[in-house]
Structures are given as structure tokens and as C-alpha cells.
């Protein structure tokens, strides 16, 4: 690809053109440095009441850093914030909250050992006569969650609920109080259809009430639907602020990346064979999955679709020995027993988790050890860890997967979300598996990198591997898969391929009982 | 963006209602009582049970405080020495005041005990939170300090309570109210108060939050330093209350008073179902844990199976089995 | 010239008796340092056998010792380290527990733990008329505890005295209190109790008092704690006698060593302190109200 | 892709080189040596230093094992009793074999010590990992068990080593090789091996991963159970090595051997910069920590300022100050 500087910014209004008088929040020339590394430099932004302001940029562009600056989690090294013309300085997030700024984090920040209600009201419990009023808090929590369409019980422990539900709890937490500015940092990355729609509706409602909304997303269609203004960041610097509705998705992508983009989905390749590679019979995962059988073929990209809670993650965790479950598994026709992830990896089946922070990477550890953790046995034959080889592999992975980082000595937790995902992909592929199962491959990944990842997946099947993709983005599945299995309430409700592989057909299978019956004809 | 407009029904409601983890310690307690009865029917006699529960009162009272410290993500190894130190200070003060105040020296001494406990707890809390020292090490340090201070105060011997106060003070351990031994009443009051604070007040929530995830707590505007320090102060006050009940029992403080109680206290808390890594504390489980420990020791004496040399081994085995039962009853 | 250095190595004050030892050792050091300008007595306490060995190494590494007065934790463990110091030309005084190699000690001054057990047992046999059910509380598993119990058990062998139960209470009054409560719950009839140390006896007496039981005719201890000696003086019927094991023996040993050092009197050999029964008649001799023990 | 070529210069390599956190324990050590010299110039004499470092060898050797356990997210309170138990078994075995094997009984006993240590560690590991019991409680239980077993074996008294073996075995503690005391050599070898395993081998990686985040380890195909159990086994073997060096020093095992060493060991590890919550271990810091502890005790003996009764208090204060210095030197 060429580095093209051909972005016709002149089509758009110059930044700062359309400013009415009273921004509710203003950042002026803010920068953030970590040691010698500059993550954000000289960003100036006005946020008006009743305005939805989207901030977009590639992975690692500095969006989350900027949002954390605005809401008091970190302090700028230069520049200043003001609210309604008054200089403000936040040294702690609760000060920003008191001033009316709430942030929904990109990563989940909840206390897992506590209940949903406890988390919602943490630090601002309601009391009655000196006692915490649990009943009332539970009621309010349940009401707020219902409003967001989240059906998780208010008394559940956060540790027991799914990632998506946790995200909804975070959103509910931010919306519980009346705020003047609400910042959403990739709120929809772990959500699917229903929740996304409801969230967008709620954002419009906030706007109608005169609340300012800052919105970050890699899903440019959402940005397009929502944003009054779009600010683009690239490499920590402002590219500009543009009126939202005039930008097409392609324009946004170009501004973010700074060059022309190829098509999002690659041309489908005819690598699929009829030779089953991984066959699973009668998979059972107590409480989640009943009686699921399927097989993935050599050279095939097999999709797994379904709504949140359909049990896709649990299915594969059960098959791979990561949670209790039973299944008869055959690899290349030979029966194998998998009781742990180790045995799965040794057999050549790799699983890439959807929860990269909790289960994927050691956030406090450097990149090299993270990269080789799954592949210790094959990567370091013998007893000793070979650091030189590891460094080499890291350099290789950084260039192959285009992992953006400021230093090779960084810790995994310092990478931006998207780059963590790429590191995780590199880590799993280092084991050289023949079957690759990727759970939510592009969660939180920017549009350019998505295309890259689709490319990587295609490379895998071209090498004769089988690839299973679990995704909550139906578009993505339709875009890259040869065949898609749809799950609903722990069972397979149907399968689509070729002609029938449309989003509406998948949606039908994923939601409706009748579709299950009707789908016999499709097969 | 594709829209799926329907969300899955919440089918997991029932999971959150009855928890074996909560019931675990009480089941273990019941099992132990049954076992005890089989071994020696006297075990369930009113006198024996009342003795044992009264004895467990100290550890129970201290363990209520420890439940706060542990659920806030801390640990306190100094409680045993702190009992001795506070008992020493209290007795010295009472003895000093007895000539002028007469029996009023007793309540005055109790007040001094509470103040001392509060200050000791504060010291622990500040070293751990402001000094940012691993609680294990910080309180190991203060454990040595308190122990040395009581040794110094007693010249290595005993500080007995003044004879003039002894009889008046005795009922605090040996007395009963409505047939119930006073230490049991006091520990019940401490437990109810503890449960109230931990479960019903804002502070209790903060405590659990700080223990569950410091970052989340900080981001929620909770002062980790303040919350955890207060937990240590509560611990200190509980230790003081235990010391107040303790003094009349033998009427003296010695350098061996309270030795190794810290281990018993922590064991009681953990047997009670509170996780050592912090998060949520279980006051009632803690109380059950304290009684369980004392019952095991009692059972060792009442049964004739075990060589005197092996008592500690059997106790160790029973504790491990109790924990296993609790784990696998889930 | 140089001061003569006398090092005193004793256990740390971790219960009543050792506290008494520390008290008397310090008193001796203070008196001697004041009285003899050319003698320096240095007292070091150690909380365990291993620490005592360390302390010996430290004391001898930093200066030349003219004499060492040591109350060893255990015989076997301290024998070699004390020998190493002896080999540097130091005068060795051993108190209480002899070393396994008797040739090391120039002066040996000891109480008699076997006699403590035996004398108590004799009194009990007499008093109970040769038969009865008793319970015993023993201390921390060490030589001292072992010897006392052995002395006791050997003496009652063949009589009608029956030991119902024997358990450790770690020379700790709290543990003794609990253990006695449990004994009382377990045995409906107990004629006598023996706690082989007075700290434990205090706990035993409280438990008996609380139970209100009258079957316990005797509750005896050992070591000569002032509170118990006071009871004997006052003619207590349950604790009419006491067995001394005076911590002040350390003071005697230090004085004898210093006397030897400054040439007043050459003192060598063995001095064995007896463990006579303290009765109301002679109790005043054993009563030191100012000692912590 | 755009940013790639310019964004990855390997310019941060130097970060690996110096870290204050790593240097902390060594700075504290240096400060203590200077302080010691001021208090008593004899402190820095070759004999004294060699004595002290030799003495710290046991704790250092055990603490190397503890560094594995702690960095894998565990804890072992049983090490002190385990030393006593292993020493007891070893001496009994040697004494039994002495008539038939002669001096060969010594190496045979050493082999038995190592096997016993391995099994004890395995027991701890299995209870903690397979039994899923909080390590604090599990090893508190086995601590009681080992302590009771040695009490039982000695009938509450002592097991001395046979006279015929004594002289031949003595050099293992008292001997020197090239002027360096043998225990120092042994602990150096253990430390080098430990550092090699923890920093350079795959197992070390796994250990750190399991301690840092169990889930990530599990999802990366690492067996949490196996890894953590092996850490306890390593701990057991280290305890055995320490027991082997210990036996000739005192020539006997008693029920009080090794009492409270567990606390010293954990303190050494933490002073050395290893976090108790697991993730990363620092072997060399641990060694420095062990020496620091022994130096503090030595300083107490060499200085004449402190009343006997207050020694523990001053030690506690110094440890807390050492931790503070370490914290705030960052
Ligand atoms: N504590 C830190 N120390 C050093 N560098 C950091 C730190 N935190 C973040 N960074 C770096 O700052 C850059 C911007 O990160 P940020 O999380 O703001 O990106 P982002 O735009 O939100 O990306 P994504 O879309 O992937 O979430 C990244 O290169 C990241 O590695
Ligand atoms: N530990 C748990 N205890 C109780 N319920 C749980 C637990 N983990 C998950 N659940 C519930 O199980 C259901 C299935 O989980 P999950 O959302 O991971 O399925 P999925 O099909 O993989 O969906 P997705 O991958 O889109 O998130 C959800 O309703 C979730 O709330
Ligand atoms: Mg981000
Ligand atoms: Mg999932």
C-alpha cells in the first residue's frame, strides 16, 4: 500500500468554523507524555451542549487517552480544560464526575466480587436513616438496566455475568446520575444488535435533553448515524473536526488512516474442501449448550452467529477443556480427547479468547513473554528460554500484524485495545495450529486493521487450515465466511451458506423459534 | 449495522439465591457438633458448650475486626500482641487509678483500652496505606513492637490487676445475664454491630469495593487510604473490646498473652468464607469459624484417641478437611 | 588495663520463669558493673536455640571474652558452639542444663528438674494416701518439660495414683485455663491437678474456681512464682506446697564466675541446687515480692 | 502500513538495565552495613560478617524456594516446621544407618532429606492446588502437622545425631572451601540455580504467568495445578537443603527447631522486592532480604543501646523503615 497524502480535506469546513458561543467543555492544547513518549499532542476541542461529538482514529491514535484526560483519570502534561468558560483541573475522576462529566470506559472497570447493584452505586450509595437502602438501589438498578434492555439480575455478581452484560452495567452506571457531558469509549465493541440500538436511542435522548455526548467507535456506521461533529485523531495529533453528516464512511476511514483504503472484505477464495478437519459430535456444556454437532472443513472459514448469550463462547470453551463439558471430537478423522487447553494446542487446535484483558494477555508483562506464552514448548525446545529468538519473533510479529507501539520494552497493558488484539492473534498463531478458532476477532479494531485481520484469516485457510470465526457482527461473518452456523439458546438453530447467507436470514435463525423448523428446507 | 432486536430472557435468576458458600461454615459447625456427640456425649452438655463458646468469644470479637481488614484487602498479624499490649496498658492504668477512683477505675480503664486499641489500629493502618507497605510485613513489624512493649512493661513477668478491683471486674468474664455468659453477649453485640456496618452502611460498601478492586474504588471517588485505615482502626477497637473481656479471666497480662491468636483469627475468618484476597466479608461465617476452631480444640481434649504429641496434627487435618468439605459442597 | 569481659547468654523472657532469669541476670550485671570497675558484664537474651548459637558467635567475634555464663536452651544444640568459645581460652560457666560434653564446663550450677517432678509426686502420693485420679498439664516440648514429667511419672509408678490425662498447655496460663475447663468437663471426678509450671497453675486455679467443683483436693505447680509462694505462706488448702526452681540461680552463677575471674576465689566444679518442698514453714525464704516472677 | 517502519525503533532496550525497584533491597543492605559500622566498628570485621552471612544461609535457601511459591501466587507457612520434621527424619535415619553404613550414613541421610522435602512440598502443593484451599490455611494446617510429627518423633524431647557421625558431618556447616564457609557456597549455588530456573527457563515463565493471572495462564495452555504444585515441590527441596546444612550446626532436632522461620522467610522474600500477590519473583533481592534480617539481629547483639525486652520492637521498626526506604527510593 502506498502512503498517500491525498486527502481532500478542503471538501470539509475547516476546524473551528462552526462554533457557537458556549462550549460546555473545552480542551485547549492538551498533550500527554509518558516519559519520553508522546501519546497525545496539542489537541484542542470544544464540546457543545446537546451535541453528539464523535472522535475517531486508528488503534493507538490516542482516543482513549484523550477521554481519560477529559474525565480526570489522568492529568495532561500540557494544556488545560475549561467548563463553561471556567478553568477546571481534575486530579481524580470523582472530581470530574462531580463537575458533570461521566466516562464509560473502553475496558470493563467493575469490581467483580460485588453485585451489579453494588457496582452501579459504588461511591454514591443511597441511604435511608443512615443505612444503605438496598431495596431502593436494587429497584433503581433494575429499572435502569431494563431501560437499557439488559436483563441481567440486579443481584447477580459481576463475576458471573457475560462481557456484554458487564458493558451494559458500565453504561448504566454512567447514566445513573444526571451529567452534562457523557463520554462513551467504544461502548458497542462487545454489544450486539438489540443492545446497540437501544444504546443509540438513549444517546439521542441525552442529546434531546441538552447533554453533550462524546462518542468513540470503530463502527463507522454508528458514527455516521449519530455524530453532529466528528473529530479525527491520527498518531496523537488532531487531523481536524468536521460536521458529521457530510462525511461518508469512506471519508472517515481515509482521514483516520491518511491514505487510500482497499475494500473492507477481501475477495472470497475458493479454498474450501470437502475434507472435514474438526468434527464435533454431541457437545454438551452444562447450563449453556446442549447437543451441538458440526464439522469444519480444511480450507474453510466457518462462522458462528447468534445473539449474546447464545452460548457460542461456552460451546468452544467446553470443547477445548476450558470449562466443564463433554463432546466427541475428531481431528482429521481420528478421535481425540481434549481435557485442557494444552492438549488442544498440542493437537493443533488454537482458541483466541474474546476477553483479551482478562484471559488473553498478561497486562503487566512485556510483549515478548506474552507472545510466546502459548508456544513455550515448541518455541523454546529444551529447558531454556531463548531471548534472542523471542525478540526476533516479536519484531516479526510486530511487522506481520502491524502492531503499533511506542517501544518494544512496553508492557502489554500499555498497548491500545486494538493493538492488544493483534498481539493476542500473533500469540495464538505462534503455536502453528491447524484449526484456529477466533472469538470476536475484530472487537475494538479500527477499520483498516479489520481489513488486515480478514486478510490474515484468509491466509490461514489458504495454507490449508480450518478457521472458525465467532462473531456478533453479522456483516463481518457474511463478508468473510464460507458457511455460517447460527446458534440460539445453546443449540444450533440453523446453518446458512451461499445464497441463503444473508443478514436477515441469520437474524431470523438467531431469534425465532419458527425459523428453526423452517430451516430444514434450506439445508 | 445489523440489528437483532430481541434479547435473550434472563434464565439465570435462580443461580443467585441460595449459596452453599454462605452455608458452608454452618454446615461444618453442625457436622462437628454431631461428630463431637459421637465421640463423647458430654460434648453437648450445656456447661461444656457454654465454656467453649465463651472461650471463642475473644477470637470471635477480634475476628469481626479482621473481617473488615481482610475484606478491604488487608491483613493484620499484630492482633495477638496487640491484645497483650492493650491488656497491659489497661491493667496498669486501672491499678494506678484504683486508689483515687475506686471501682470507677474499671470503666476508666476500659475507655483507655478502647483509645489505645484505636491508636494501635491507626498506626497499623497508616503504615500500610500511607507507607504503602505490604500488610503482611507491616503488621509483622508492629507485632514485634507490641510484643516487645508488653514484655518491657512487665519486665518479662506478669502485671496482675489490683486485688481491690478483681472481684468487681470478674463478672465481665465469668458473669451471666439472663443465663447467657457476658462474653457471649458482648461478642454477639460486636457481631451485630459489625454486620450492620459491613452490610448496611456506606462504609461497608466502600470496604468491599476497596478490597475487590482498588482501581475501581478509586475511580468511584472512594479514598482507598481512608477506607482501609478505618478498617484497621475498627480492628484495633475490636481488639480492645476483646482485651477488656480478657483481663478479668486471669486477672493479669503477660508477655505470652494472645500469642498466635493472629493465626487463629485469620483461620476463623477464612473458614467463615471470607476470601483472603479481599472483596466481601462474611461476619456470621467468621463467628462460626471462631466457634469451630475452639470446638476442635475442645474435641481433642474430650476424646481419648489422640496422643498428646499429635494434637496439633489432628487439628491441622480437621481444618484442612473442613475447608475441603466447604469447597466441594459447592 | 583492659576490663575483663563476662558475657551472659540466656533465653529471652518469653514466660514467667525465663523472665525471672532475665531479671536476676540484669540485677547481677548492674550490681557487678557498679561494684567492680574493671569487670564488664554483658547480658544477651535469645529467643531460640539457633539464636543463642548466633548470639555466642556474635559475642565472641567482636571481642575477647574472659568468661561466659550460659543457660543453654538445649544441651545437644549448644555443646559444640560453647566448646568453640572454650577453645579461645574463655572460662565457661553453665547454668541449669549441662552440656553433653561435661569437660567443657569449668563451673556448673544447676537446678534439678527431675527432682521437681519427683518431689511434687511424693507430696501428692502422701497427701492423697497413695491413690487418686489426677490430671497433668505439661509445657512446651523441651528437655525441661520432659525431665519434670519423667521425674513425676517414675515416682508415681506402682502407686494407686492414676493419671487420667496429660496434655500440652505450653506454659501459658490461657491455654491452661482452657485445658482445665475441658478436663473438668471430661472427668466428673478429679482428685488432684499438677501443672508443671506456675504460669499454668494460675489458669488451672481460675478454671477450678469457675466450675465450683469441690472434688479437687490438690492443685500443684512448680518453679516458685511469687504469687504461688504467697499462697503457701497464706496456708492455701488446695496449693499447700510449692517446688522451687529459682531463676535466681543465674545470679549466683554470675557472682561465682566474677569471683573466680578477679581472683578472689578459685571456683570450679559442680553445684547442684536441690528442689526441696516449699511449705508454710519455710516459704518466706523463697518469697521475692519485687521479682517479676 | 504507515506507522510501522518509524514506530518501532528498539531504543528502549536500556530500560531493562537499571531499576530502582530492583536495587531497593541492596541499597537497604548497604545502609544497614554503614549503620552497623557506626554503631560498632567490629561489625564489619571479616569474622563477624562471615558468621552473619553463614547464618543467613538457611533462611536464604528456604526463601529461594519461597520466591517460587510466592511468585506463582501461593504462600507456604509450613517451612519452619518442615525444617524440624526433615531434620528429625534425617537424623533418625542417619543414626539408624550409622552402625551398618558408617560414614556413608551421612550422604544416605542427605538423600532421604531431599526425598522427604520433595514429598512434603508435594503434599502442600496438592492440598493447595487440587484441594483448592487458600494457601494460608492449607499450609497453616500442614505446619501444625509437621510440628506435631517432630514432637511425636522426639517424644517431646530431642533427637541428637550419633556421636560417630558428628565430627564427619560438622564441616557441612563449619567448614570452608577456598576460605568461604560451606553454607554460603551452598546458598549461592541454590540462588544461582533458582535464578536460572526462574529467569531463564520455560518453567520460570509459567510460574510468573500463573502468579500474574491464572486465567491467562490457563487459556495459554499452561497447567495451573502442575505449575503451582512444582513450585511447592521446589520449596520442599529447598527446605531439605536448608535442613541438611542445619543439622551439623546444632547437632540435634527438637520440637522447637525452625519455629517462626516461616515469618522470617516471607519477610526476606518481601523485603527482597517480590510482591506477595504473585507475578514476579526476585531471587537476588530475596537473598539480600535474608542477609538484611540476620544483620539486624546481629546489630542488636553487637550494640548495647537496646534493652533485652525491646529487641523485637527495634527489629520491627528497622524492618518497617527498610520497607519504607525501598518504597520511596522509587
Ligand atoms: N501508561 C502508558 N505508558 C506508555 N504508553 C501508553 C500508556 N498508555 C497508553 N499508551 C500508549 O498511548 C497510545 C494511545 O493509546 P490509546 O489507548 O489512547 O489509543 P486508542 O486511540 O484508544 O486506541 P484503540 O482504538 O485501540 O482503543 C498507544 O500507543 C499506547 O501504547
Ligand atoms: N459464570 C456465569 N454464571 C452465570 N451465568 C453466566 C456465566 N457466564 C455467562 N453467563 C451467562 O450465560 C450466557 C451466555 O454467555 P455469553 O454471552 O458468553 O455467550 P456467547 O454466545 O458466547 O455470546 P457472545 O460471545 O456474543 O458474548 C449469558 O446470558 C451470560 O449472562
Ligand atoms: Mg481506546
Ligand atoms: Mg462470546
From TrEMBL, chain A:
Boundaries of every ABC transporter domain copy: 25-260, 271-514
Record-linked SUPFAM superfamilies: P-loop containing nucleoside triphosphate hydrolases (SSF52540)
Originating gene: rbsA
SMART domains, A to Z: AAA (SM00382)
Name of the protein in its database record: Ribose import ATP-binding protein RbsA 3
Localization, UniProt: Cell membrane
PANTHER family hit by this protein: CARBOHYDRATE TRANSPORT ATP-BINDING PROTEIN MG119-RELATED, D-ALLOSE IMPORT ATP-BINDING PROTEIN ALSA-RELATED
Presence of the UniProt keyword Plastid in the record: no
Membrane topology: Peripheral membrane protein
Pfam families xref list: ABC_tran
Automatic annotation (TrEMBL), chains B, D:
Protein name: Inner-membrane translocator
TM annotation in the entry: 20-40, 52-70, 77-98, 104-128, 135-153, 173-199, 230-252, 283-303, 309-325
GO cellular component, one term: plasma membrane
Topology of the protein relative to the lipid bilayer: Multi-pass membrane protein
Cell compartment(s), UniProt: Cell membrane
Molecular function GO labels: transmembrane transporter activity
Main subcellular location: membrane
Origin species: Mesorhizobium plurifarium
Keyword terms, alphabetized: Cell membrane, Membrane, Transmembrane, Transmembrane helix
Keyword Nucleus part of the UniProt annotation: no
